[in-house]
Amino acid sequence: MDKMNRKSSARASVKLADLDYTPVLIALAVILLTFVVLFLWKRKKTVRSAVLFTGLCDSGKTYLFTHLCLGGGRETFTSIKENVGSFKTEKGRELRMVDVPGHERLRGKFFDEYKNVAKAIVFMIDSVTVQKDIRDVADFLYTILADKATTKVPVVVLCNKQDETLAKTETAIKSMLEKEINIVRQTRRSQLQSVDNSTASDTFLGKSAGVDFEFEQLGQRIRFVPCSTKDEKYDGLTAFLEAL
Ligand SMILES: Nc1nc2c(ncn2[C@@H]2O[C@H](COP(=O)(O)OP(=O)(O)O)[C@@H](O)[C@H]2O)c(=O)[nH]1
Ligand SMILES: [Mg+2]
């Protein structure tokens, strides 16, 4: 009897030892790899680390970018490609800065490319020409503020070129934009109604069509800050960057 028991346990151990575990190990490795890839992909999608410099052409984005990231002072060139650099805060934190070209045909493309990695948005305005270009400025700002991808991203509207005598103040620019956004909003709404809006990536800005638009109605953090890159007066911006 004892002999028989020993024989069968020996057979069982031989069988276990003979088993080929390779498929099981491969399956486990595939599962593990899938989890790692999914984790990295999700992380890549949600890591927001860039400060985007946007705004119309000639507002001074590249000039400010070179001041902040390259220690500035140099004249700028027309950018058709984004400039990427880093800025060190007083606390020693490195921020990735991206100067996005403002040409009408390029700005939408670049904004779409960077909106998912934006930690903050600097919207630059030429305070001298803002009145003349108000429709364009309001339209672009609307695109940025209404985009679902950036609703939680803080925005600073930098009213640049305050050294010029004809520059409008940040308070005047803010109210000019509020009036103009009312009009932009109307146009966008009628455009949306004529197409299928279930896939639209933008939302309606403000309370309702019947109530005049005000920036305070937004859930998004937005502030208007005066600035003169030429005179190196951009403490409002650096304070904003320090607080990020
Ligand atoms: N007066 C004045 N001119 C500025 C200031 N900032 C930029 N500029 C000028 O505005 C022009 C456009 O600047 P740029 O950085 O190329 O604008 P971008 O197209 O937004 O990148 C350049 O000639 C700059 O020297 C400023 O604070 N004051
Ligand atoms: Mg530029």
TrEMBL record:
One of its GO terms (cellular component) is endoplasmic reticulum membrane. Its main location: endoplasmic reticulum. PANTHER family: ADP-RIBOSYLATION FACTOR-RELATED PROTEIN 1 (PTHR45909). It holds the Pfam family SRPRB. This is Signal recognition particle receptor subunit beta. GO terms for biological process: Golgi to plasma membrane protein transport; intracellular protein transport; protein localization to Golgi apparatus. GO terms for molecular function: GTP binding; GTPase activity. Keywords: Endoplasmic reticulum, GTP-binding, Membrane, Nucleotide-binding, Receptor, Transmembrane, Transmembrane helix. The chain crosses the membrane at residues 21-41. It is found in: Endoplasmic reticulum membrane. The keyword Nucleotide-binding applies. It comes from Anopheles culicifacies. It is a single-pass membrane protein. Gene3D superfamilies: P-loop containing nucleotide triphosphate hydrolases.
